[in-house]
C-alpha cells in the first residue's frame, strides 16, 4: 500500500501516532510504502518514526516540499486551524507519476483496523474513493457547486493513474485560484477537490472516515442510519477533523481516549505519562476563583476550602513585611 501524509515538524508527533495505530492494526500480509510530503520535519522526529519498525516493518520516503509553491493559494478564514500543508496533496501525481493508486491521510487520524478491503476496491474511472462530509452544512456546500453530495478530503483513496492522465494537479491549482477569486472558497482544498472531481468519486462506508460530526451535529445523505451506527460502533479510521483535537484542553470528542491509547504506545509515550501525572495532581490539588471572584477555592484530596481573597492579601503583606 502506498500511503501519503503531509506534515511539518509541529505535526510530526500526530503523524507518528497515526502511523503507530496503522501499524498495530495492520494485517500480517500488509506491506507499506509511506511517503511524507515534508515541510521541515526534524531529524529527531524522523528517528522517532523509524522506531515504529519495531511494531511492523515499512518503507518510508520524505519528499521535501517547498511551501513557496503554494504561496499564491489562499487559506480560508472559515477554517483557521488548517495549515498550508493541506494543499500538498496536489503534488502527489507530480512526485510519484508511476504509482497507480495511493491513500492520502490527514495526520489527525487513528487507524483501528486493516485497510486491505478499501485498498482492493476497484476505482474504475473515478478520481477517488471518499466518505461524505458529515458536517451539518455539507448540503449547502454541495449546492454551492451544483453537486448532490460533498466529501471529506481527510481520507482519500486516490486513482493516481487517472490524476496523471487528466492533469489533475494543474486543474487543482487553477481551480483553487478560480474559487478564491469568485469568493467560493470556504474549506480550502476540500472545496477544490469536490469542485474539480464533479462527483466522479465512489462513496464508501463512513467507517473509513468517521468524522467527529458523526457524534455531534452530523448529517448524512449517502448512508442509512444503520450504516452510521455500524460505523460509530466499529470505525476503521477515526478522523479528528475540526478545530478541536484530542490533545486540546476541553476536547469533547467521544473517542478522545483512542488517541491517547496509541500515544502511549508510540515513541512519544513520555508525553502521555506526563499528562496523566499532571491530571492526577490537578485532581487532588487545585486552586480557582469562586464564581463571584470574592474567594479562592482550594481543593485538596477532595476537601474543598473557601478563603476570602482579602484574607489572602493580608497574609501576603504580613509575610512580605515580617509583621
Features:
three-stranded mixed sheet, 323 residues, 2 domains, globular, seven-stranded mixed sheet, alpha/beta, Spore Coat Polysaccharide Biosynthesis Protein SpsA, Chain A
Structural overview:
The structure is a single chain. By secondary structure, this protein is of the alpha/beta class. The protein folds into 2 domains: about 1-275, Spore Coat Polysaccharide Biosynthesis Protein SpsA, Chain A (Alpha-Beta Complex), CATH 3.90.550; about 290-320, no CATH class. About 35% of the residues lie in helices and about 20% in strands. The chain is built from 12 helices and 13 strands. It has helices spanning about 10-25, 45-50, 90-95, 115-120, 140-145, 160-165, 170-180, 190-195, 225-235, 255-265, 270-285, 310-320; strands spanning about 1-5, 35-40, 60-65, 100-105, 110, 130, 150-160, 200-205, 210, 235-240, 285-290, 295-300, 305-310. A 7-stranded mixed β-sheet has the order 3-2-1-4-7-6-8, with helices on one face. Strands 5-10-9 form a 3-stranded mixed β-sheet. It has a 3-stranded antiparallel β-sheet with strand order 11-12-13. The longest helix has 16 residues, at about 270-285.
